[in-house]
């Protein structure tokens, strides 16, 4: 069932180029297609329908909730347009039917807030007059752009605090699927932790879901039973934080501030804010300026670390904050080689720095991370 909200503001790094040009990712030379026919036609605000397709429930207090807040920012900025959304869209032919229904309901812009791949692409190809965006997408088209967050930077900063607060040197990670967002998160987190404890390791458990509180809770228990005393993950709820609270461990979360579920365990969270970016894309669509872009919301303006939890020592917070400042001012990039994979093979040579494109598509584990690679 489609939920509709009618008549209702909260920078980003544009990894593409201006309208009318090919989309070129910085530092890589990788070229993405642009709409050769030019921007899509403008839409009168009162006639506009903006649709959102979500992977989880809007009440998850996580990923989907964050996107729903972005939709509310759109409603506040453009009160005459109509919005609609469908939550918990399955990764099946039902997804295609839902996206088709958005088009049938005269949506002029559709946001898929997770990667739906071919379930979305066929719909986009058949509706060239509709602007589509796929979050964490990998296949931009003439009328379909992609967007995501550079979460590996705040994950690295949070890892510094985790490394300082772990007494066992064993970190745990509750993973959804073995996908690039999980590889970049686990790798960055352990790299940060190893600046404090070079012998630290990270064990992952894959639960094959983005939203499964029971499975996430069970994975948290298993990781702590295996000796992990700091947990991290990419889940859309607070399951493993509650486990950490009960077992005297610590945890770093994703998406929102969830500290009330584990005030003694909470270190921080990877915070996301899509509102300004959504408002800008809708503005462009209404104005007749929209063309597909490949946008990565950067550290400090779309994704960040949350305020530190009460149990984080002041000196630990200060050390992590100092590194954060150097990343933000561009004087330090944590993803410089030499970096080896989990099999000991050098993947990034000494002196080389991983590009944003490589970080976005990261699909291998570094030394010390287990549970993802075969």
Task: Please give a structural write-up.
One of its GO terms (cellular component) is plasma membrane. It comes from Celeribacter baekdonensis B30. Residues 50-289 form the ABC transporter substrate-binding protein PnrA-like domain. Keywords: Lipoprotein, Signal. With 374 residues, the chain is α/β, with parallel strands linked by helices. The protein folds into 2 domains: 3-149 and 273-297, Rossmann fold (3-Layer(aba) Sandwich); 152-264 and 304-370, Response regulator (Rossmann fold), CATH 3.40.50. Helices cover 32% and strands 21% of the residues. It is built from 10 helices and 19 strands. It has helices at residues 63-77, 93-104, 118-125, 152-165, 180-194, 213-225, 239-247, 275-287, 314-328, 356-360, and strands at 3-6, 13-14, 23-24, 31-32, 49-53, 82-86, 109-112, 131-135, 144-149, 170-175, 201-206, 230-233, 250-255, 266-272, 294-297, 303-305, 339-340, 346-348, 369-370. An 8-stranded mixed sheet has the order 1-6-5-7-8-9-15-2, with helices on both faces. A 7-stranded mixed sheet has the order 16-14-13-12-10-11-19, sandwiched between helices. Helix 1 (63-77) links the parallel strand 5 and strand 6. The radius of gyration is 20 Å and the shape is globular. Mean pLDDT is 90; it is low at 1-36.
